[in-house]
């Protein structure tokens, strides 16, 4: 008290920072004038856009405004069949015969064109999916391009991927991707498949088809042989028709564990190769000897990045009991600085929830947490009148038996639990049906190695979170799926050694 | 000093957070308000061997009225000079409300015995300095003698007392460019705060690197932890290397999103800078007229 600044008595003053205050940031919306969205999009089959034989269309919207953006074709079984056959023809006639060096040029070209049109793709991704423009601009699009560049480099080096053996492509790949990183997931799927010499039929998620369709335009402009890449839009039935098509040799799916299990059942005995990248309930473990302020940043990016619509989100915080109160206090203050609102505003940190269905699911799970007796803290954001929104939230007093501690919420909701010893931290972290990712925060290097060796998770981040690189494999244990994407491992999923 | 250990600082994550806050887009009315605010937070500084009474008088005129064409533009917070020029500055600023800050304790190296440092401080305070910018003994800090660093700050704080019972406010310069690691910066910040600093300040401006967003964030976090623990508010002064309006706005964002708007106040935040003021004025004029003007239109004092 004695060192207090003149005229500022402390006894009566709250210790809550005033983050609104006198100096407010003016709106800084990203321009959309350079983006042209067509009123309707057909299916991209055999190198051109065609109307669906099903004659069915559905609307795709902007989840931040609920306004319709475009009409999109809903591919039926006949459309999927046409796409698979186009891919098979392209595989037999051109792509598998093409020297790797030449294939690599096409893949590289896609990366280059994506970079050139980065703003168009970032704005479109944000409008169709609800994610903040700063994330689509700084992460989704650059990382998508990086995947094309990385795998372009492998195309003429496949004989060196498996020392002592050569490798050959599989054929037509059916690839079904989710709505949380639509363009990025398309690049994760297409880049290694094409570099390895396969042809693709890609099915984007029902709510976020637009960037995949604009990527199909790039494929057209890049002059890839017709049929090497096909894009069929639609919902679950379209995806099912694709993965079950007899001419598909390889299925790659990223999405929910529930659908992943259905796909695995459907494919049993078919001889198709399968990789699944499914849900997660990752533990982010903060030890008392961590750099606490930076750990709080890691907790925030772990769970509130992309509204928590991240399969590897750090959705369970395990914090050492001795620093629990401090971390919770700092986190509560930090989430008050998160700016929720117009995803196109360059200062927005938290965008819109991707769909009404997802918002309902988040609400339902949060209600269950409250009913179970967990204590809910939410940022007091102004929620826009239209669109789907959920404020950054966390639960304390969470027991391992609560649904919010075991089920994937896939929203900006964190469950906080405590532990006392490293052994207990590892036990709780592994006590889940999932095993996609985890985080470890400690300044002690030996502890990082010891703990991460014991964690049953495909990716373990130490003193950071949600960092991705095309050269680094990504994938899960247990119900988080199998197979790896990224790096040489990701390439192997699209090849067979001979 | 307090026996509580300073928390560790993770370099990568700290720099990442500081850089992320640099991406805030400050436009239109927020930009104008931010630029005006930044002017009111400046410690307009001259610390050269060739400083003379004439130079100080000119600088003081600029400090009181930064833009003669636009009287609505606020005065800066203080003028910062060497201790022998305090009287000159004090006379030139009389009645303006602009304070006089004096660097002291054998600034910038501080490599003289403590009695000499304290004599330097007492002289500046007696001459009317409102604020004293001291340097810590970095050699002692790096040699592990934190007790000596602490005691010197306490002694300097005592030397800031005036006869009437009031005291000059004490800014403690850590010279972060010589401490090198964020762990050191954090420990030195905690130590200076515990010893009674009213402000903690990054740099003398004589060593490179001087202020950076990341080192400032590291120090703001120390201030925040102290405030949350005790309720006492310590000020922050990044100094050196802040030359552009864009940089200044980045620092304001760091402060606002770490400590809140309360700290955007001359009592709790300052820029130590000499050339920044003209860029702030130029950007303000550009916002008003839509055009950049020749730098010859802005006085070079």
Oligomer: heterodimer
CATH topology of the largest domain in chain A: Aldehyde Dehydrogenase, Chain A, domain 1
CATH architecture of the largest domain in chain A: 3-Layer(aba) Sandwich
Number of helices of chain B: 12
Please specify the SSE layout and strand pairing.
The complex is a heterodimer of chains A (498) and B (301).
Chain A (H helix, E strand, L loop, with lengths): L39 E2 L1 E3 L2 E3 L6 E6 L4 E7 L3 H19 L4 H17 L1 H12 L3 H22 L12 E3 L2 E5 L5 H15 L2 E5 L6 H12 L7 E3 L4 H9 L3 E7 L2 H11 L5 E5 L5 E4 L5 H13 L11 E5 L3 H12 L20 H17 L2 E4 L14 E4 L6 H4 L6 E7 L2 H9 L6 E5 L3 H10 L4 E4 L18 E2 L4 H6 L2 E3 L1
Parallel strand pairs in A: 1-5, 7-8, 7-10, 8-9, 10-11, 12-13, 12-17, 13-16, 15-16, 17-18
Antiparallel strand pairs in A: 2-3, 4-5, 6-20, 11-19, 14-15
Helix pairs in contact in A: 1-7, 2-4, 2-5, 3-4, 4-5, 9-10
Chain B lengths: L10 H11 L6 H13 L1 E4 L7 H12 L13 E5 L3 H7 L6 E5 L10 H13 L4 E5 L2 H5 L3 H14 L9 E5 L2 H4 L2 H14 L3 E3 L11 H18 L4 E3 L7 H14 L12 E3 L2 H14 L12
Parallel strand pairs in B: 1-2, 1-8, 2-3, 3-4, 4-5, 5-6, 6-7
